[in-house]
Specification:
9 strands; alpha+beta; nine-stranded mixed sheet
């Protein structure tokens, strides 16, 4: 949904498939833990229980990200405002667009190896217009745009 000229509503690019994947992984881990527990391998049981606790924490993190309210993405000359943070074109090395069920966009900052979670987003509504505006802004500021993949959870 276009809020006003050059501004778009965005949110964290978390999908329901991530939640389903973690839940399936947890069920498989519980099954393995019960089988190993019956064989009396306490160290392996401890490791799998720790793994389950980690999966549960990750599931909670994903659910928290899904519940967050949408934020504003705005363009202002050579500046982009994402989630209240102002970034100049000189701060951004590359814009990565990840295709899938719901497209995700990541802004790779100069000097960083990965795209931070706070610099990735997906459009709530009006994705074609938002992507078009982002690509135009990046072209005007000589920022490389590339299709690709990035981790949305680190």
């Amino acid at each position: 949904m276009k809020v006003h000229n050059g501004s778009f509503e965005v949110r964290n690019p978390v999908t329901h498939m991530q939640v389903v994947g973690v839940i399936l992984l947890m069920f498989a881990s519980v099954y393995s833990t019960l089988a190993i527990f019956r064989m009396h391998y306490p160290i392996l049981t401890f490791i799998l229980v720790a793994w389950l606790i980690g999966c549960l924490g990750y599931l909670g993190y994903i659910m928290k990200m899904m519940k967050q309210k949408s934020k504003l993405l705005a363009f202002d000359g050579n500046t982009i405002i994402l989630q209240g943070q102002r970034l100049t074109a000189q701060d951004i090395e590359k814009v990565t667009i990840m295709d899938g069920y719901k497209r995700a966009v990541g802004l790779k900052l100069k000097g960083k190896r990965m795209i931070p979670v706070g610099m990735s987003f997906s459009f709530v509504q009006g994705e074609p217009e938002g992507l078009k505006a982002l690509q135009e802004w990046a072209r005007n500021n000589q920022i490389h745009i590339a299709p690709g993949h990035f981790f949305r959870w680190i």
